[in-house]
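Example 3.
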Amino acid sequence: MSGDIFINVIYWLVINNVVLMQFLGICPYLGVSKRTETASGMGMAVIFVMALANAITWLIDSFFLQKFNLVYLRTIVFILIIAALVQFVEIFLKKSMPGLYKSLGIYLPLITTNCAILGAAILSVQQKYDFLTGIIYATATGAGFLLAIFMFASVRERLERAAMPEMFKGIPIALITASILSMAFMGFAGLVKI
Amino acid sequence: MKNVFILTIISLVAGLCLSGVYIGTKDQIEISKKAAFNNSLKVVLPFMKDKYEDVPPVKYDMEEVPIYPVVENGVLQGAALQVIGKNGYAGNIKVLVGVDKNQTITGIQILEHKETPGLGTKSADEAWWGQFKGKSLDKFKFKVKKDGGDVDAITAATITSRSVTDAVQKGLVVYREYAGSFNKMGVSHE
Amino acid sequence: MKLLTFKRGGIHPPEHKSLAEHKTIERPELPETIAINLCQHLGKPAKAIVKAKDEIAVGQLIGEADGFISSHVHASVAGVVAKIEKRMTAIGTLDETILITVDKDKTREQLDTLNKPKIQTIDALSPTDLLGLIKSAGVVGEGGATFPTHVKLSPPPDKKIDTIIINSAECEPYLTADHQLMIEKPIEILKGIQILQKALGVETVYIGIEANKPDAIRLFIEKLQDPSFRGIQVVSLRTKYPQGGEKQLIHAILKRQVPSGKLPFDVGALVQNVGTVFAVYEAVYCSKPLIDRVTTITGFVNKPGNYLLPVGIGFEQVISNVAGGFKDPERVREVINGGPMMGKAIRQLDVSVMKGTSGILVLSETQVCYVDEGPCIRCGRCVDACPMGLMPTNIAQDAQFKSTDTLAASMDCIECGSCSYVCPTHRQLVHWIRIGKTVFRNANRSSK
Amino acid sequence: MKSLVITSSPHVRSIERLTDVMYDVVIAMIPAVLVSIYFFGLQSLLITVTAVVGCMAFEALFLKIAGKTNIRATVLDGSAIVTGILIALNLPPTSPIWMTLIGSLIAIIVAKQVFGGLGYNIFNPALVARVFLLISFPVQMTRWVNPSFFKGDAITAATPLGMLKTDGLATVSKTFSHLDFFLGTIGGSLGEVSAVALLIGGLYLLMRKVISWEIPVSMLGSLFIFTGIFWMLDKARYADPIFHILTGGALLGAFFMATDMVTSPITRKGMLIFGAGIGVLTGLIRLFGGYPEGVSFAILIMNSLVPLIDKYTEVKKFGLVKVKA
Amino acid sequence: MSNGNTAWSTFADGIWKNSPTLTLLLGMCPMLATSSSVMNALGMGMAATFVLVMSNIFISALRNIIPKQMRIPCFIVVIATFVTIVDLVMAAYSPGLYKSLGIFIPLIVVNCIVLGRAEAFAYKNGIASSMLDGVGMGIGFTVGLFLMSTFREILGNGSFLNLPLFGPSFSPVLIMIMPPGAFMTLGFLIALKSYLDKRQKKGA
């Protein structure tokens, strides 16, 4: 089983990377990647919220929605949970860790609309992962996000100084870089088979 | 307090609306799901007349193979088997294999896969899997040519071809066993 | 003998020294007028103490040091002050300048007496006396930085100096003035070293000479057989630029690294240029102020060589009358005050020789390669070449994009030019780093 | 006299220029190109010429559209030629012309010019082109022929690594000897077949100081160690480390592509880390991944990490040691 | 604010000038994920347009009831309701499309376009103009998707709306229907848009 977990983690981390292969969380990926510091901050925040959200939505899903045959309310319930959770985390951070809040605070509201969080939560219950696997899945997916955004941010600092044609500056070149990164990550295809 | 109240009201209305839509669409969703599967079944079992027996999966070599036998007047006409091709290029490949009573292949369908688009996915084209039609275990070597068999591999996708070929062969083997036990005991729903 | 050198970076540009090498030091014809800048040194400009129409003698004090880091300026000729005005200097600043109409006969006469030694030994003089003599002679570092020598010789009391290093590396291509001075005046230089030893109370002295001057090395080893020169050793250094950089020289000889942002005396060392040592000798033994210096005039001129030039003589004069003129005026592109690596290109020829003018280099169109800057191709040659262990291309880019947070490193740059020299896309790295220094200083000032 | 020019110091420059560096790389690739012509005939010359001309043409076209002025100088600076030859060396000898041209287009436009041209690209253009083609045209990109020596028909064949992936080690050892890899009498892309030609080129580059030893040594070394460990664990299943170094463009990557200055770290320490990363990733993909060959992917991934490596391997400043009192 | 003229211009602007994905850079996840075939793209575009229009209408209608502090959760509830309706209807009547769009149908909830328009427009404007705005934005989104998917499908699969365009000898550029192709196409499309915008500005 532990071997399976390892293989799955590799799969979620690089082979089926949440950003580069699944296109989840593109907005923060492009928006919060101008500096490595903020990127890693955002990545950490995503891992944290993703794992937490996954745990809570899993519990709600199995002990409430499935029990009362309300699975069709999944989307609406999950998004409300995530929104509330982010609010809660924000308040919590503001009070107990002002330093962290200062660096992550502005990204937390963005996380609500980060489709990777909701996506991971829904996919996790759709794939019928058990509670623990779900959390590992969410953490690995979040780590995949961190990996992608961190690598990308360090490249982007260099791009800021490049003498590229005006029309490619900003988002276009970021997307083209993401494209090449995603090509490179395709080299991992078949590394593990699940 | 009033704010929370409004939110609750809105949520309740939304919930009610949704249950309405859900009840309205529930049956259709089931029908669609069934139809999709039935279409696949029809492709692999051209002789089937809209009816198959609902039987538990067959155990074979540590795995459970779902089987959908077609029985007419107590005689087994053939079956569709849902087999897993191991070691595909990027993971397992779920294949639906149709076998007739002569233990020859009548068709296959790729149900689930993670293969490379445009390459491994060619295994889903009849242009490729057509070569299995009418083949049986005794007259056809279910191995790709590179491994000394009779199967033409998809160009540049040997691994996918191998995996699918293995699955098809497994389907035939499982069917043979099932047919053996069927002839002894008849259709079993247990 | 093992050749010493500094550990990191450095380059080997073509030397081009053969043009002026071993040319005997000549004393040129005196010009009609002379223009002496009042800021010949690092620090505050001297204050003029003469006025127009004043008659002056050779060696007369005409500019008085103003403040602690400043230095006296003396007349290099006899004559009459024509006027005092702001003029462009050879290092590109605009400074008070005293113009003197030269009285050639008088000058010659007075120079002869001035050049004669007045004392035979320095036994009777105390360190304080020596420092006083050096200070009143207006001696400054002749290597190019022109730091007032008496200030350098008075380190803060808590810094103990244990070694003196005489910088005779002359690592700049083309320049041969120090080399020729060593060949012609070895005893005077050694006597000058003795003055430093006594002034600082330091026994150990190393004379660092690059291996491309074997005759100088041999000569000094021979002269050092005399037991009266105690504690002095010759060290031969590998020919590598910038061997003559203070921090590099200290590292090469003493294996001590001057910490970032600190000065040589922080590691107990003091570096003096060999020309300065000669000036110290003249100041003490002849009571002669620093009014002339050996300068190499070389490059695209008809008569390259080493000349003893009076401070204040015009570049135009020097090139056309002393060095035989340009080879082909049409093809001249740059005239440089100093060596090709660290010297300054001058804008016009009517500037005058200063105490720090170690060379006048004329470059033709074939020697100057002036091309547009290309993009950095990240080849890393500048990183390999930097003797200070910096990443020149990064600093330059930070300067270009004004991102001040990483510019602190620029303050360690010694502007030796190694990075720009090796850059295959001809990026003006030193130029950008200089801008970076200014940006950094301004940012620091405004944040304070 | 004309007026004097004022430039910032230093006033003399090394004679070595960008073009010299680039043309040195071109010279170093000549042995590999010649070998490919010898083995695969004029087809490989055609591919090389197409790739080079394609690169230069696309570069000129882009610069023209972007309204740049010094098009001629930029196109002739040698970098497009290097990219072109590298693309060719990475293609199989059966590559159709249109595919070669698409490769040039991707390399020059997508991987180089939109980033601002030479010096600003993050990824090695030739490798972006190769990976793009490999993913897009897997059939054409894996159609190998045996070296024909100008005689007889070219027989379709597999690369040793491809054979290893689909047929296992036993078949490979039956088919090839190490001498085959060394001389290049194997199937493969134009530039990956002959280890000896690549070594000659690589040594030339090292001698001319165009590249430094750090990247090739650390890359090949880590590949050797990585594959060596698995070989020691199971000699029947994993190929020996020498096999891995001699086959599949490991040498081509180590000497010509990983060492591309623009896309590799500046500092020596950084180069060592960069090379080691490539070696390990290559081994990982070759032994366990879906693709038989991993050098291109490994280099691209490490390319993206270069800014990070640079950041954490800044050279130590002179004078940061403690003062000895 | 809500006279017919401006409403009409917001509608027209949404389609091309302020194209949500190409200029405002919103909603890029579905743009990238569902543009590998024209069919998927149109399905996604229509689903998103439906949600946009309906949620705009309802939020505009309820704008006097929804309290300011609680508006975001309310918006989310309204939007999620319509998303779920789309989800259920699609599952029932178009199972093929439903399968290939997968997770991106429920993810319309967090599509920045929908929430953005609710916040920026519908909450402040009347029902009619909000509806027009929703239609404009929805069409703009669909146009962007359509452009991108046309390019990707033709190059990457050699077909348009699943109809093969070329003979069997054509080798499609497979990468175009894979993730790298999505990023690349969108990058060039946005660059092209900004180039055209700039040229228009210069011309005007």
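Chain A touches chain D at residues 36, 151-152, 154-155, 157-159, 161-165, 168, 172-173, 176-177, 179-181, 183-192 (CB under 8 Å). Residues 36-65 of chain A form the longest helix (30 residues).
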